Amino acid sequence: MVKLIFTQNLLRHVQAPTLDVQGCTVREVLRAYFVDYPQVQSYILDDQGSVRKHVTIFLNGDMITDPNTQSDGVTAGDEVFVAQALSGG
């Protein structure tokens, strides 16, 4: 299982609890998560399935290399962290 964690500022807008999720790639982990929490998908992915411009996904502390298809491989015990950029003044 892979631990999927969302930034606190996203949690102000949508229910997105931390969960252990099955998958072999970041994309598979996200898709499995969206089955139970479909409302989170539109905050993370655009209409083409790419990571939104204001969102960054980290795998074990490093940015994923493929935000378009999220093909970065994951293994049991990995941690995927989804961060949302903040702006304002």
* Overall number of domains: 1
Task: Outline the low-pLDDT stretches.
Answer: none
Number of strands: 5
Report the major sheet: 5 strands, mixed
What's the helix count?
3
Shape: globular
Major sheet: arrangement of strands: 2-1-5-3-4
**End-to-end distance:** 39 Å
- Provide the CATH superfamily: Beta-grasp domain
**Radius of gyration (Å):** 12 Å
SSE sequence, one letter per element: EHEHHEEE
- What is the level 1 CATH name? Alpha Beta
CATH fold descriptor: Ubiquitin-like (UB roll)
User: How much strand content do the residues show?
Assistant: 15-25%
CATH architecture: Roll
Brief write-up:
With 89 residues, the chain is α+β, with helices and mostly antiparallel strands. The chain has one domain: Ubiquitin-like (UB roll) (Roll), CATH 3.10.20. The chain has three helices and five strands; from the N terminus they run βαβααβββ.
